[in-house]
């Protein structure tokens, strides 16, 4: 029973008008936008959300499918985006131009993980590889420099990001393997005078290569296994560095490429961290990359849901609206269950990262993030299939109401395989969580 005090309060209280934002259809935006209260977001987050939504709606979304088809964004659009502050948000203030303190004018020192979630989520409204065409792959290529580079390296490479004088790709995957980082085959041997590394090998499916000035690269400098891995930054204009685009089924504007390294001379000053200690740098870099991909999977699944819901409320079949068929509403409800619960999990992980002194380097999060990416990829696959079922031919057609769904059907393999295939990282999650449980005192 409700207590008399609560009943009295309910009878005299005035209804609070909640703010609304974006697409007001059910489950079409994160719940905190219009429906449910949240402890994670404040006015700063709302300000960022409003600003980035406005920017994308005006400067990106109207042109994105055209840029995807062409395989790149115009230089003017790339320069405008680089100077907008909506990218390179983890670059510290001392390496940023004075007029770009951070996204939407928010100083980067005031940003938290939930700001990152908002920027990733809003950016994932764009289909194809357009996000990479606009910003390059520096979002994954620069963190090793930001968190493990020397002061000289940071001063040399980070300020140029905002004018595209520098742009970084991440060279990990090789023709012989992707997720098996410990068995990298590309070698880096020092010259006799100790001033250079001579790099030989191949890298494959390297995102952002057409616009990169440098490639943050995993190489073998020591013996077999993880203890022989180092990270070095290779200028793309180095002698012996060559590349060519790989024609993939989707994400054409992402610029995925095959890179050949043939006796590339790289100054030893380009080593990130210590020699033969690069494996840990690479693996902790994966935490942020996989979390970003998990958030993007959620938004893209949400796009499938909202597009299906809109279409089902306008399409008539057999004399009635499509949504009036119970099987269609059941599909919508199923997608909503998965999308909303996955988002809540991501928020919980984000909160832990925000509270941890170790941040992205916290050993507690690798398994959680890995599983969240597996789950996000599975949800996206299901959501895209169900959206194409609801839209029928419109979901298979380039252009029209299902254009984003059709594009997504070709892009989603990269979301599932990129950053570590689900088979590999699911196994990683089991091993990581088992080891952590034993440390906490779990007895078998």
What does the secondary structure layout of this molecule look like, with pairings?
Blueprint: H1 4-12, H2 43-59, H3 64-70, H4 75-82, H5 113-123, H6 130-135, H7 138-141, H8 143-148, H9 151-157, E1 168-171, E2 187-190, E3 196-206, E4 214-220, E5 229-235, E6 241-245, E7 257-267, E8 271-272, H10 278-312, E9 316-317, E10 320-321, H11 326-355, H12 366-391, H13 403-417, H14 422-439
Parallel strand pairs: 1-4
Antiparallel strand pairs: 2-3, 3-7, 4-5, 5-8, 6-7, 9-10
Query: How much beta, percentage-wise?
Result: 5-15%
CATH topology of the largest domain: Butyryl-CoA Dehydrogenase, subunit A, domain 3
What is the overall silhouette? globular
Count of discrete domains: 3
Structural class: alpha+beta
Number of strands: 10
Q: CATH class of the largest domain, anyone?
A: Mainly Alpha
How far is the first residue's CA from the last residue's CA?
45 Å
> Which stretches are poorly predicted, pLDDT < 50 over at least 5 residues?
none
SSE pattern, N- to C-terminal: HHHHHHHHHEEEEEEEEHEEHHHH
Number of helices: 14
In CATH terms, the superfamily of the largest domain is Butyryl-CoA Dehydrogenase, subunit A, domain 3
For the biggest sheet, the summary is:
4 strands, mixed
Order of strands side by side in the largest beta sheet? Answer: 1-4-5-8
Task: Write down the oligomeric state.
Answer: single chain
């Amino acid at each position: 029973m409700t207590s008399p005090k609560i009943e009295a309060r309910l009878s005299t209280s005035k209804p609070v008008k909640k703010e609304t934002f974006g697409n007001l259809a059910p489950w079409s935006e994160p719940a905190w936008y219009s429906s449910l209260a949240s402890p994670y977001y404040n006015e700063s987050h709302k300000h960022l959300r409003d600003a980035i939504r406005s920017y994308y709606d005006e400067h990106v979304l109207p042109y994105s499918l055209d840029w995807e088809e062409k395989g790149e964004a115009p230089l003017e659009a790339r320069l405008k985006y680089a100077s907008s502050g909506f990218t390179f948000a983890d670059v510290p203030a001392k390496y940023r131009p004075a007029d770009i303190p951070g996204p939407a004018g928010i100083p980067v020192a005031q940003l938290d993980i939930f700001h990152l979630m908002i920027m990733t989520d809003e950016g994932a409204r764009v289909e194809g590889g357009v996000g990479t065409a606009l910003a390059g792959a520096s979002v994954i290529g620069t963190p090793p420099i930001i968190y493990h580079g020397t002061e000289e390296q940071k001063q040399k490479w980070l300020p140029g990001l905002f004018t595209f004088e520098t742009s970084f790709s991440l060279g990990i995957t090789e023709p012989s393997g992707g997720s098996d980082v410990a068995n990298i085959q590309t070698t880096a041997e020092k010259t006799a005078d100790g001033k250079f590394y001579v790099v030989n090998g191949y890298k494959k499916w390297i995102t952002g290569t057409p616009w990169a000035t440098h490639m943050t690269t995993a190489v073998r400098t020591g013996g077999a296994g993880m203890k022989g891995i180092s990270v070095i930054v290779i200028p793309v204009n180095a002698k012996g560095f060559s590349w060519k685009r790989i024609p993939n089924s989707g994400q054409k504007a992402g610029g995925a490429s095959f890179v050949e390294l043939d006796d590339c001379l790289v100054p030893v000053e380009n080593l990130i961290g210590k020699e033969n200690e690069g494996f840990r740098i690479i693996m902790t870099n994966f935490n942020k990359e996989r979390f970003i991909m998990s958030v993007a999977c959620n938004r893209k699944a949400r796009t499938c849901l909202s597009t299906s819901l809109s279409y089902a409320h306008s399409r008539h079949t057999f004399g009635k609206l499509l949504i009036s068929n119970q099987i269609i509403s059941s599909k919508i409800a199923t997608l909503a269950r998965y999308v909303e619960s996955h988002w809540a999990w991501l928020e919980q992980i984000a909160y832990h990262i925000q509270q941890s002194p170790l941040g992205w380097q916290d050993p507690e999060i690798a398994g959680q993030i890995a599983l969240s990416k597996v789950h996000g990829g599975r949800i996206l696959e299901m959501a895209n299939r169900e959206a194409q079922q609801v839209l029928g031919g419109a979901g298979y057609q380039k252009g029209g109401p299902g254009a984003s769904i059709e594009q997504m059907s070709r892009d989603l393999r990269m979301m599932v395989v990129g950053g570590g295939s689900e088979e590999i990282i699911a196994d990683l999650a089991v091993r990581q969580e088992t080891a952590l449980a034993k440390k906490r005192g779990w007895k078998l």
